[in-house]
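Bench notes, bay 3.
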Amino acid sequence: MILSRRFFLGISCAALSSRALSRVVSDPMGLADTGTSKVAPNLLERALAALERHRGRIAYRDFVGIADFSLPSRAPRFHLLSLADGRVRSHLVAHGRGSDPAHTGWLERFSNEPGSKATSAGAYLTGDSYHGAHGRSVRLDGLDATNSNAASRAIVVHGAWYVSAAMIDTAGMLGRSEGCFAFANSSLSEVIATLGPGRLIYANRV
């Protein structure tokens, strides 16, 4: 995807390099439909604003993760954005069952409430990786009022069998998490390697 230089110049975020000011290239993974893999300008602007707002907590500003929950779960809607050159790698990611109780494949609501099993909107700080019930995972800390319970709710990044192109072929959508950012096991290594401790994940809808 290419975004105009004028758009980026309108964003007061010093993290973007001159190369990133000129382009954002979408390189979707897992699905061929590149039309659903673009970072929506409105969501990108809010993610960059969150990076600036939480600059005191975000140690590294080379990559950010942006989850666009406006899109259905069958779309590669989690974007790894390089702030050095504007390149984007897009992955499948599941939302919480509490955000989609009828299992339509679309996120209907966000929630920060304990026990909601829902996805929370807002800015997250990535923490250390560990091996837990879902295998290799990454701890997350919610930085906004809308996701302040993330750590106590054990909202993390992890891999899941129900996130795959094969699941989409069978059911037309992904399975649902308990509110975590659940990725295809084939994507997990890249997501964890790119978003190591001290980086931003921003989740919302357009």
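Next record in the batch:
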Amino acid sequence: MATTSDIRKGLCINYNHDIYKVIEFLHVKPGKGPAFVRTKLKSVTTGKVIDNTFSAGHKIDEVRVITNRYQYLYDDENGFHFMNNDDYSQIYINKDMIENAQYMKSGEEVTIVMKEEDGTPLSAELPANVIVEVTEAAPGVKGNTATNATKDAVIETGARISVPLFIEPGDKIKISTEDGSYLERLKE
């Protein structure tokens, strides 16, 4: 059993008959009254995000987890298939367990969080940014460069994103996996 002083970002806990991961936390010590910890928790099974406040010293049930690097192989109608880079074993994960999976391309390495006691996968985390190739890009409008003008493009995973006007099909770009935003064009 842990207490509220052990709360940190990434900690997995049992709460309301589900496993939640701490996304954000803030220790608050008001001038009047007892201290408390304000948290934002994300369910690793459903992806639902809730806000919760724990009073200081409250006991929390910590879930021990292990993380491994896996390589994304392919997907089917139900989920994604990954291979462990160390022992080449394969694992299957449901589609709803991965946020922003539309930016994940074959061969990409992801971090999978599993329960230590039975090896059940809890969540998969994409790298912060990925390098993808633009397959389709709308033509830019000439003279529309007074502001940060963008156009729609389709990347190799099939996702639609907004890119600057100078991006053409075949260009390799770096995008953020958090929201799909364009970061930079890569030189060959």
